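Running co-folding for manganese (II) ion.
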Amino acid sequence: MSETLFFLQLAHLKQLKRAYAEIMQRLGLSRVAIYSGHSERFFADDHAPAFQAYGHFMHWVGLDDTERGWIVIEQGATPVLMLHAPSDFWHLTQTLPDEPWIEAFDIRTSKEPAIPTVDEHTAVIGDVARLDEQSRQALDQAQIMPAALIDALDELRMFKSDYEIACLREANRLAKAGHEAAKAAFIGVGAELDVQLAYLGASRQRESKVPYQNIVGINGHAGVLHYQHYDETPPKHRHSLLVDAGHRFRGYCADITRTHVGPDAPETFAALVVALHGLKNELVHSVAPNVEFLTLHEQMHRRLANILVSFDIYQKSADSAVELGVTRAFCPHGLGHSLGLQVHDVAGLKAEDATPLPAPKEHPALRLTRTLKPGMVVTIEPGFYFIPMLLAPLKEQGLAINWPLVESLINCGGIRIEDNVVVTESGFENLTP
Ligand code: GLY
Ligand code: MN
Ligand code: MN
């Protein structure tokens, strides 16, 4: 660990302690106990799927795979980190990283799963509903998941400390090697599975550690927004590759998408990919304090409308493409979301005081409706897809779409270009190299 990162982390922890103290004082709490959670076994089986710790647990320690751990915060006391370290000859017992931050915690390990001491002024947060009955009874006196506390802690996570931004920057740097290898595998005539394995190998991750399941779509699969399979056979024709894949660093997630043009794609597709890069860059440069994220999302739709018209895909005015929902058929998802310990991070759809800020009904998939402020980290991910299911209604309505051109692009699936961007005091910093 670099010395700089360590000092940033100590400052992060100090800031977190101060913020928790202020929130606890306001809510009349003397203690907050945060459960990391644990994985449930598959039905009628003895093994479990990959696990990710609760975000508010990771906020303190970044240990993204720690099961049955607790953080206990008490006014004026050193934070306690309780770890479950069973004597177990089947598995390797959890050990802490050899990093200096552990000095900031009072660490208590136990062979049996432990439950913190609670009273009526204790708030317990995390997935405790899954604990066994005896453990749940031991927490009986506490306030479980009080909404006012969750709202306040979610809001805290919306604003990243310098340490958190350094972690997100590092996660982006680590993902870059994967994206380069993925592109090379596609050029080398790989199947989706080869691209996936190249990504994992070059970014040095096992599949259970990625922040979300990598999306690797060749040809038409690039138009399936969260395509979830990896074909094992290389396709006969190669039009396009969309890779949406990230990396974790200390719990913090990179979420990056690139779209590559295959040798069999029409020239128009290559030009569209260039246009989408331009749109992504323009939107990244529009990120600044006090900008409404919804305004940026609408800017994306207006620019997509211009692209539709200038490429002769839509043969009426750009304004009507937005008004009639044509752009929404070509890009059904939101411009982006808050990014942090969760890929789709918390508090994107509530105001600073926790009043709901739901997505407008014409943009139901938008995951962030807030005014941008320094310290927020967001994704900027314009997309442009040929999704038969969404295009069919445009045909039925007899809209002025150049269908032969659309048909020639259907095999390319779609395009998404996604970067991770910090809102700074003066504008933005793009974390994606
Ligand atoms: N990787 C999921 C997303 O971009 O939101
Ligand atoms: Mn993504
Ligand atoms: Mn994203």
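Result summary
The first helix runs from residue 3 to 27.
The pocket of glycine (ligand 1) is lined by residues 212, 244, 255, 343, 381, 418 (CB under 6 Å).
Job closed.
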